Amino acid sequence: MHPARKTIAVLAVTQILSWGSLYYAIAVLAPQIRLETGWRAEAVLGAFSLSLLVSGLVATPVGVLLDRHGGRLVMGAGSLVSGAGMLLLSRSHSLPLYFAAWAVLGLAMALTMYEAAFATINREFGARGRQAISTLTLFGGFASTVFWPLTQQLDQLLGWRDTYALYGALQIAVCLPLHLLLAGRRPAAPDAGPATAATVTTAAERSHTLHEALRHPAFWKLALAFAANSFIFSAMSVQLIPMFVQFGHAPALAVALAALVGPMQVAGRVGEMTLGRHTLPQTIGKFTFAALPAALLVLLLFGASQWALALYCTLYGLSNGILTIVKGTLPAALFGRKNYGAIAGALAGPSLVARAAGPLAVAAIIARAPAPAVLLTVLLGFALVSLASYLAATRQRVALAEAV
Questions:
Q1: Residue 370: count of CB within 10 angstroms of its CB
Q2: Three-state secondary structure call for residue 212
Q3: What is the pLDDT of residues 24-60, one digit of tens each?
Q4: Rounded Cα–Cα distance for residues 280 and 101 (Å)
């Protein structure tokens, strides 16, 4: 098999397994965990939020390790940490141990999921990394499709504890050997590439160090844009269907319309790979960040109409699907590839913390003001801040490149 295809194939399998077991399974298993243990829902899901927080806190040092050692060592270690964390989780009979297990799994997320995979791809593929990232996200998009029904079946057959134990075994038996097939330590692929719109970047004629990136205002504006966006998607992921019902729609219709999000994510990624493959990541990002406030405004003004819900889910899914690719390609486009892992990890950190805070913030807002309009107004404000920050970040980088 061609080395490039082998890398994508390895990461496609491991991303589906890692996202499915580390991220998506809890949505199915949380009710059973509460039923067996008697723990409150806030505690069961709060531990999962802790894992996202830990993932965000360690994202930058993990990125540095990826730059220095490559994906084989770091992602291979992540498979071991994932296996150990899930085994610990399966044997957690007290809340402190349960929270400790999720803290370990937060480290595993940083070592194995998209940010690590994107850093591995940019290191090995160089200027061709964008197409590889787009391809990988297509496969990763099937993680929930595969693991939600699989986890439900395993839970009925084995219970939640043995389900997590089985997923831990898969991490060690399947993901670890596959990650060890990745390329070992090697210099990062050069930034230079064919002079096409897909590979020429506005400010990546040389690679920035992490220190240089952190000193540039564009970095922090971009970090704010990603964090605000992640906060909204995290908040809506737990509130989407209940909000549709609050607008007066039947639960079955709410579920059916919400199901549009997944296919629209895939459609967005396919569109980026085909229609947008020769467009700069900065330009693709403008649509991504503009679509979300438009979707929220439609829902805020016309939420009682079915067409508004369908349009919201379409825009929401397209935006979320393409955003994953933008997060993977934009750091290289703006800051270069040599230190991609460290810079992308630093950018991802605030987003992961915001993702952890989203569901908790939504719960606090709803407790004070249950009306959907209140939450939507707050989220629309975040969306506008996110869009403005993104435009400011990319405009500033373009101006810098033109000045140079």
A1: 10
A2: helix
A3: 888 888 889 999 999 987 888 889 889 988 998 998 8
A4: 41
**Amino acid at the residue 395:** R
How many whole angstroms separate alpha carbon 130 and alpha carbon 142? 20
State both tokens at 89. 């989780």
The terminus-to-terminus CA distance of the chain in angstroms comes to 42
Round to whole Å and give the CA distance between 200 and 192.
8
Tokens of 146: 């595969």
In the chain, the amino acid numbered 155 is: D
Question: Distance between CA atoms of 41 and 274, rounded to whole angstroms?
Answer: 43
Task: Report whether 230 contacts 348 (CB < 8 A).
Answer: no
Mean pLDDT, range 257-265, rounded to an integer: 81
Identify how many contiguous H helices and E strands the chain contains and give both numbers.
18, 0
Q: Are 372 and 251 in contact (CB under 8 A)?
A: no
> Looking at residues 237-241, what average pLDDT do you find?
76
User: Which tens digit of pLDDT belongs to each residue from 378-400?
Assistant: 999 999 999 999 999 888 654 44
Give start and end residues of each alpha helix (H) in 19-70. 25-37, 41-69
Task: Assess contact for 225 and 327: CB atoms under 8 A.
Answer: no
